[in-house]
Amino acid sequence: MSRVKVPTKINKPFHTYTVKRIDEFLATLDKDILGIKNVADVFINVRKARFSVRKVNLLREIKKLYPELVPPILALLKWNCDKNIESNLPRGEVYHLLKPYNENDPNNTTIQKEYKNFYIFIKGATKLSKVQVEAYYINLLNRLHPDERTLMCDVKDKNLYYRYKIFPEMIRQAFPELVF
After folding, report:
1. What percentage of the chain has pLDDT greater than the value 90?
2. The pLDDT of residue 86 is above 90
3. Which of 7, 18, 19, 100 is 20 to 30 Å from 123 by CA-CA measure?
4. Is 122 helix (H, G, I), strand (E, B) or coil?
5. 178, 74 Cβ separation under 8 angstroms
């Protein structure tokens, strides 16, 4: 049996060495390994990353592997981070107004399909009354997967940091094309 020489001293700090190895592994990933089915899965995977460098690199890889998810992700990040954008919806929890999620409902939708209508939820972007906007929002949430419901509520209240630990600086590094 041959002996493997284990390095006793690493020149770089441990976290830098580990992050570099993880990033090299990320470069070899296939789409199916990440298990991303919707926009909420992207944010859940980013939340699981421990270091900010790792989160930024993961967002960059997702941008390459899932180009179809980039526009809705950018819309959510802009809505969450831009201080000039105010929601036309009341702050706080809305879960008590929602029906239980039914996987087999033919009316179910995703953020990816609905993100083009998010302008309705922005103050001053539509002539709809506040009651109509809130009714549309509740209807949309009732048709979304529970993970996407949570994501939408966090974005509406500008609380992405609290649940997903995504800072504006990380977003600027991962998506330099996004201005906020």
Report:
1. 69
2. yes
3. 100
4. strand
5. yes
Taking the C-alpha atoms of residue 169 and residue 156, their distance in angstroms, rounded to an integer, is: 20
Name the residue with higher pLDDT: 31 or 48: 48
Model pLDDT for residues 43-67, shown as the tens digit of each residue:
999 999 989 999 999 999 999 999 9
Identify whether the C-beta of residue 86 lies closer than 8 Å to the C-beta of residue 122.
Answer: yes
Tokens for 2, please give them.
């041959």
Neighbouring residues of 109: CB distance < 8 A, sequence distance ≥ 6: 140, 143, 144
Candidates 136, 147, 46; CA nearest to 89 is 136
What does the pLDDT average to over 115-139? 94
pTM for the predicted model, two decimal places: 0.79
Closest CA to 112 of 154, 83, 60, 70: 70
* Phi, psi for 126 (deg, rounded to 5): -145, 160
Neighbours of 71 (CB within 10 A): 13
